[in-house]
Amino acid sequence: MTTSTTATPSQNGDSHSGPHIYHHHNPVDEVIVTEKLEVSRIRGSDRRMVNQYEFEKCLGKGQHGQVWVARDTLTSQVVAIKMLKRKDKKAEKLSALRKRNIPSQPHVPLVDKMSTTEMKILKEIAIMKKLRHPHVVRLLEVMDDHLLKEIYLVMEYCAGGEIKWRTKNNEPILRVSQTRRIIRDVILGLEYLHFQGIIHRDIKPANLFWSEDRRIVKIGDFGVSHFSQAQRAAVSGNEKEEEDPILLDESDLSRFAGTPMFLAPEVVADTYSDPSTLSTSTSDTPNESGKSTPKLRPPITKAIDIWALGVTIYCLLFGSLPFNGDSEFAIYRSIREDDWDVPETMGVDHIPTGGRHQAKPKKGRETEGFLLMSLLEGLLQKDPSKRLTLDGAKKHPWILKDMSHPDIWLRTTQMAGSIAATDAEASSALSFVRFKWTLDLARGISGFFRSVRPQRSLRPAEKPEKSRAKGKERQRDDLGTRSMPSVLTRQKSITIGVHEREKQKRRGVLRSSANQSAQDVRQHRAHDNRAGWRHSSHHAKNSEPLPSGSGLRVEGSGPKPRRSSAPGPANLDTLNIPSTSRIASPRPTHASSRQPNRSPHITTPIITTPSATTPSITTPSPLSSDTEDRGRNRFSLSASAMYRWVTGRSGAPSPQEMSSSALASGAVSPATAPSIIQDDRRLRTSRDLALRRSEDALHQASSRKSSSSSGPLTLAMRAASWGEVGVYRPSEDIQSIHSGEPNDETLDDETRFVGAGGYAQSPVPSLPSGVLSTVSSAASIGQPAFNAAQALLHRGGDGPPTIDLTSRPRSHATSPLGMGAPCRIGRQTIKGAGGGS
Ligand SMILES: Nc1ncnc2c1ncn2[C@@H]1O[C@H](COP(=O)(O)OP(=O)(O)OP(=O)(O)O)[C@@H](O)[C@H]1O
């Protein structure tokens, strides 16, 4: 649900009048859009207050504005607020020059009415609004008052800061194992972005953020990201899916955006340095006149993120960049032409690399260095068509190294059919619903999954990107820590007319959805969410040129100068969707695709039959032969299987075995248990349970607004992303997954248990993995589930071990397990090194 809020009249006249209603964040809410702002100063201090947010300290300044840590005085939640200036004089001048060449049209393009900066901001917002994943920084609220010169993006605050990767002497500061875990998180986040049709375009260590305790890494900064409708349609199987017109503009891939050292070769292709060679020919053979025609520039696809991931891994492990130069031009040349090399050792733990080219060892004897070289080889392929895919990277032995159950990790973190790919689905609390244990829910879902096999759709035909822009480059003086500013070159596709039609369509949908049955609630929410977009951009899209702000003074000189623009890459969307990402079609948009028996609560990903226009094939998951397994009823309750294991018999737990509070709260219904257990019959092994737990963590996390560091949820999530899925491990394993100092003796039993994503040692020494993981999952879900788990496990006598869960696990923020512990290098304790600051 998107909510508009209003503010009080300002004391200082900074905002206009309106009733005093500030929105209270609810973890399952969609992004809030606030249109009226009150900007004031806190009495007796020079600190700024914007609506309910008290600004505390400035984190830094980027291209278009500042980022502040602020506190929500209503909830005490600490957030990061990005203040973006609507107008950017320099960028606009450049844009105005370009626009002179655009012929006049019956409808004035939206971009011509809005500043290019504002357009960019709106795009960033539109992209961020779609995202909800534990490894992606979350947008909580957009504060956009057209009377003010700044737009405020309230985001999840990642208190661990950005990932630091080198000392002043260009030495690495992370261990190899830490890097591996970071990269696993990034892969999961990136996989989600690509699944959503988003190319990040600025993957680099500085855009990867630690959670407060440095257990989780999240991808942030979507300032130059690109949304591809074609990619999205390929995933959803619905080419006609409605989207924001702002997002539909695909010309912006022709922008030359990103951070120079992390740009892929296809982005800096030599047509850039020599515009005369620019050609649309696909051949490099001599033509009739005998002249050789250069190859067509490779299309810009999500493969650019894979390249940047390779550069990022290199940075984290070696403390230096694989491609560098004294000037931007030299950097690009190096990216295009140079081979990369590696130092003798990697990581702060100085593990030998074995060199760039090494003889292939016998199977099973591959060294860390050998595996890394093979991974980098795949990621840093200059030809994007030969580059490793994200799926390939995820399955690479270096990434999976030291995992006790890589196959389970791969399966549990698989995107297709498991991750809610739409806003509506992402907003659902799958695990929470699961623990409601409603009969309809369990039956409906299991029936559904039995009847529908996963399908995967082929992507639509490639769209040629027409626009090409030429430009000059400018030298950059920083070392890849700053993104290049982005300037839209053409925005012809977005017109007021398009917007009006879009609005009318949505209104119609919204009206009719008001009368739909409860089964349509989820779909309604999706529309509602997108319609909510109108709140923030309504005036921008429909009104006359925006009035200049009356409130905040414009400070500074705007963004850094535009560095360069390049000839536009040729093609836009030949996005290679990993096979594992194609299985599900998550959002039905037509009534015909609705499942008649689905409960209004059911918000599980939907596997739709592909539309007539989209060819599809049915392919088993590459990870396992049991594709059907993926389609199983994920609502089958692990807890019931846990019950079966605990009691040694099938059937429902008796009411006495349920905790009274769980029953009282309605979270556990004895009447529903038999059917649930029946549905659960196929889940016989603890392995399945472990799998389930991990999925739950993902879903639960994706449903939470505040997926920051607090709460036990993130522990389960961490387990999933760190590849340690619900497996009991002895004490030495705790150290092996410990990113801080190995001799940390401060773990107490409870903390160990809280960290039960596979790290518990006591007090559950002989607990099978499934049970342990289930409890971990339950703990992440909340009191009712927690009570249920407790009821099931809390039995004495000759059965399995008793686990006392009477006290809620304490926040893992206090737990030293994992990356929270300091990492010392010499006498220094290094921030961002998986340790304290
Ligand atoms: N959600 C967040 N949580 C914590 N810190 C953040 C968050 N978002 C941004 N920051 C920090 O705020 C600072 C400013 O960020 P911003 O993205 O505006 O600029 P930048 O990354 O330095 O430059 P640019 O984006 O122009 O490349 C950076 O130090 C960044 O690490």
From TrEMBL:
Give the top-rank taxon of the lineage listed in the UniProt record for this protein.
Eukaryota
What protein am I looking at?
Answer: Uncharacterized protein
Please spell out the taxonomic lineage of the organism that makes this protein. Answer: Eukaryota, Fungi, Dikarya, Basidiomycota, Agaricomycotina
